[in-house]
Amino acid sequence: MGTTNEKTRYSDAELQEFKDIILEKIRIAKEELTSLTSTLSNSNANGTDDTAGTYKTLEDGSATLEKEQINQLAARQKKFIDNLDAALVRIENKTYGICRETGKLIQKERLKAVPHTTLSIEAKNKQY
């Protein structure tokens, strides 16, 4: 490991490999986001006008809670997509995969698992 010619950045081929992974993750994340937002707009259409008042109130309460949860999921998904988009920019700048704390390359395995990360395991562990 401790060779003098230690890599300071990933090769273009490796960056392309990460780009493909990220683009696929963005595609899936956008699909999930679309399904979350359509769930939100559809849940308004399922009106239960013919049910008893008490039951309706209970149902409204759980529907509101569910809506909040879906909104949170959607917000998290949007943030994830933004982070992945930012990672694509770093690929274009050829700064992708470089830890913002240590300046060293982030391990390939970590990037494949968390492609939008900007911290190496080393730096992440120091945060705790």
What does this structure look like?
With 128 residues, the protein is mainly α. The chain folds into two domains: 12-95; 97-128, no CATH class. Helix content is 66%, strand content 0%. The protein is built from four helices and no strands. The protein has helices spanning 12-43, 53-92, 108-113, 121-127. Helix 1 (12-43) packs antiparallel against helix 2. The protein is elongated and about 65 Å long. 9% of the residues are buried.
Defining traits:
about 130 residues, about 0% strand, single chain, mainly alpha
Order of helices and strands: HHHH
Instruction: Extract low-pLDDT stretches.
Output: none
User: DSSP strand (E) fraction?
Assistant: under 5%
Largest sheet data:
none
What is the count of DSSP helices, taking H or I runs of 4+ residues?
4
The structural domain count equals: 2
Q: From the structure provided, what is the oligomeric state, counting identical versus distinct chains?
A: single chain
Q: Evaluate the radius of gyration.
A: 21 Å
Could you tell me the mean pLDDT?
86
